[in-house]
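Colleagues,

For the teaching module next term, I've prepared a clean inverse folding example: a structure given as tokens, and then the sequence designed for it. I'd like students to try predicting residues themselves before seeing the answer, so please don't circulate the second half yet.
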């Protein structure tokens, strides 16, 4: 284990050896092993958005085993998915890629202004499947947020007691926020802080825009002239909001977008000190050959081999 990974693990001194071992498993796996950077493949979109919206662009994705293969061949640090997807493929790929069980999920069959995810699996499932972490989504800004925070704390306590790391998808959403406010810099930074306070080992947030949503926050940003003009500046501020960078913060790849836009965002994440990306639709909706080329470029940017 190199000095960079030891440094990162030192941020988690309160965690037990099992949790730190599982963090090390992810940080030391795949093409970015030892760099302190991470690219995670998440495939929860079949549940979250529906099968056709998720997999019709690349029908190979209807087969749960395809995503294991893609994560392994691309050299991702980990693969994250709901219970059914992991159960459908894990026996064919035991030990080949670290796994994250997405323990709660949300569907779009009911148009909710204040969403809450259903708890769809648990720590026992994660241990049975050989996972190194559980994943959990919270929606700061939702009227249901307090219940989600309490659910997360209960599951995080159980997971960490069993030696599993905790990855939190912290996605502001709900009737108290405007649509644009979901990615406003003050809101995304707040979401990162909330996840850190709830015990997240790894925090996943969306890339922040320059918009400031909350009037009281605007006064502070303006008074202290917090740099926000570039995406790298905003990434740096989000990371600062996660215990001054002492928690791993990775950024969502979002909806499918033009390659150069995604590559520019990866450069901003790198330059802002981010730990990497969690890239789903921008990879698995491509044919495998194209997805591997795409992920190779992303990882090259994080390595510094591609400027």
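(Answer key — instructors only)
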């Amino acid at each position: 284990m190199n000095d960079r990974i030891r440094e990162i693990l030192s941020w988690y001194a309160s965690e037990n050896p099992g949790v730190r071992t599982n963090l090390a498993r992810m940080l030391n796996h795949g093409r970015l092993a030892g760099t302190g950077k991470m690219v995670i493949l998440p495939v929860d979109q079949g549940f979250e958005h529906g099968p056709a919206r998720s997999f019709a662009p690349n029908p190979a994705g209807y087969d749960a085993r395809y995503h294991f293969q893609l994560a392994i061949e691309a050299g991702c640090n980990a693969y994250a998915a709901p219970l059914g997807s992991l159960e459908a493929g894990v026996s064919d790929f035991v030990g080949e890629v670290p796994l994250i069980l997405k323990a709660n999920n949300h569907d779009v069959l009911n148009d909710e202004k204040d969403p809450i995810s259903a708890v769809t699996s648990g720590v026992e499932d994660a241990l049975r499947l050989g996972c190194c972490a559980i994943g959990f989504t919270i929606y700061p800004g939702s009227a249901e947020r307090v219940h989600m925070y309490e659910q997360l704390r209960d599951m995080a306590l159980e997971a960490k007691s069993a030696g599993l790391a905790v990855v939190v998808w912290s996605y502001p959403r709900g009737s108290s926020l405007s649509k644009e406010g979901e990615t406003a810099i003050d809101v995304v930074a707040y979401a990162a802080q909330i996840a850190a306070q709830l015990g997240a080992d790894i925090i996943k947030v969306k890339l922040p825009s320059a918009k400031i949503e909350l009037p009281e926050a605007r006064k502070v940003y303006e008074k202290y002239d917090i740099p926000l003009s570039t995406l790298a500046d905003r990434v740096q501020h989000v990371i600062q909001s996660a215990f001054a960078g002492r928690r791993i913060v990775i950024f969502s790849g979002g909806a499918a977008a033009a390659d150069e836009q995604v590559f520019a965002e990866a450069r901003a994440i790198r330059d802002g000190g981010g730990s990497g990306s969690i890239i789903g639709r921008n990879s698995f909706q491509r044919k495998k050959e194209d997805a591997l080329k795409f992920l190779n470029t992303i990882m090259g940017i994080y390595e510094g081999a591609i400027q």
